């Protein structure tokens, strides 16, 4: 086996390769002493990757597939302490969007790699599969609609040695979810030293103040091991980029004094008590046996906003469907005994007909005088804007043993992960309870739990003249479950006034009832074989094969072929071809929820049902099947002295892609059939959505990554470029479950062109980092509304980040900086939409719509 560096070539001995393979299989959880010895052998080799191959860890340039490696120092050169924001500026085809009003997606922000949803990227920690988040992104910006990926935001930068991003399909190597690629978060393994960092920042607008305190310490575990502990605590205030809604402003003008200004807030959620602790450890029993263990404990509280409910025209709460009269309930059940309350109309200064103040109308006052009659205006006379709150708790633990038996290396491990999101709703109503409704609700919880057992074996062997061929094989058993916990009764019950047309459950996010609560699980086994070796001194060839069998839908067999050819000492070519799959998550198969969406500027209540639920099945829902993919990649690597450049093209065809359907209107003529099928109160459900395998896509792109180091301005300069072009086309879809707007969001919802250029300059004690971020045109939507009213093509933009650091002492460094230092404004809503719902910017944009953010940071190392 050959490991190539920029300036020299080295061959692994059998003993050193054995240790390296052991590192790869265990996720680099080895003792500090062993690592130090290995680094001595591999002097001058930097940025060694563990993922992408089960042979020896190798440099990025020697990999037959594209890999980005971001070390912990690079991650910290960013004003944000959120791992997602750190990676967006470092990986060319990694994207994320803000989530101001997005139900549960406000709690766990979805991401995408190479134009595919977050659950198409496999996430590892120390080489072991990371569990999914319990949150499902029901409003995930098009690409991530319905995605259920891991929550990487709980991983603090202080805990990491480096992040490895494999930008290539790898299901044949690692199993489900690796269609887009693999991300491996490698934890620090120092047995001594540590650091403490305090950072504080806020937006130019004076809101969103964020405080982060993190620390890391390495401790020896006798002379043969280590315990490395990292912790982070963070708080972040909410932001508001809102204007008063015209309808709310009119109500105030007409004399309604119970309307807030602004009535609805578009902005980042408030984050409180956000803490996380990661522990990584290793211990050498002897020269041939090592133990390792790692895990985390994390929690955070998040409070975000929802849409404003107008007290005149919110159907099934305040008004009848036409919005011309109030919805009046009768205590005795006979609505005909209550007078109709029309919403008065007046002429404003511009000659437009607008709503008057119904609260002062004689019809409303007469209704109040009748003890048999009521309207929800009596509880919330100025309307209301629910607040969506949640507590996300996350923990994991993995332990294993690895070593050598003769010529074989082995790694056996077991681990578990759990993520629970407990939801609550504030300032809302259960209209069907009438005037007895509470206004705050505990709506229930989602919980994702996973258990994984692995055993891997590897060795080197020779065939004729071919030496040091790497062979690896292994077995994995995994069980995952998704549980829905029932909310308090008031959050889901159909109260006495449901039959009179009042909405059921806490409005905005209905609580989970007994029919929704329960636990569903599945298990699967996987077996793989992986062979890799040099056919000649310059030609590397690898083949992987994996078989998996799931208890719910059957089995799958996938393969991968990868190769690299070194044309010269400076230039090499690489390629790969693979098949892949992504199993539908247990959550996607069984989740139940109620979401509020915007269509043509109007709020509609949508019921999210399992695909086999009677309501979903009536409109086309079927049992989910795995996605299947075929990937091709071709690239080149050029490295000469201090210059490094990779150019990679990829093409990913996904068939039977799983996603949330578009909103399907529940038609009045279907009510009777739906009742016969077991659907209760279909007349109170505006639309239904469910998960379906209803479309095929082809995603292609080009990633360019380059870097150059040189002496400059009497110091050291490091220039780097990360550029990504991504293009997705929907090849086939079912128009009954996926509309044209959703198709366009899939194709154009993220910029086709993304680039980041970074100039790092350092002197003896002073260091500066200047970063330019380019975001190309994209299809912008407001509040997930893909109609002409709420969407358009948004302009390209450039943001500039700057950080300056000065080392006062060898161990003490002060840093100041700003993200989006010139306060580049996000794309504004077009005329006719601007301010209509209280918003100013399209929240679906690729960079932070809150504007410039400045910060300061103090770091102490010991």
From TrEMBL:
Task: Give the UniProt subcellular location, in the record's own words.
Answer: Cell outer membrane
| Domain TonB-dependent receptor-like beta-barrel residues, every copy | 384-821
The organism named in the record is Shewanella eurypsychrophilus
Protein family per UniProt: Belongs to the TonB-dependent receptor family.
Q: Superkingdom of this entry's organism?
A: Bacteria
Upper lineage: Bacteria, Pseudomonadati, Pseudomonadota, Gammaproteobacteria, Alteromonadales
Which UniProt key words apply to this protein? Cell outer membrane, Membrane, Receptor, Signal, TonB box, Transmembrane, Transmembrane beta strand, Transport
Q: Where is the TonB-dependent receptor plug domain?
A: 62-182
Name of the featured protein: TonB-dependent receptor
The reply to whether Membrane figures as a keyword in the UniProt entry is: yes
The signal sequence is 1-36
Q: Which SUPFAM superfamilies match?
A: Porins
The record's listing under InterPro entries reads: Beta-barrel_TonB (IPR000531), Beta-barrel_TonB_sf (IPR036942), Plug_dom (IPR012910), Plug_dom_sf (IPR037066), TonB-dep_rcpt-like (IPR039426)
Tell me how this protein sits in the membrane. Multi-pass membrane protein
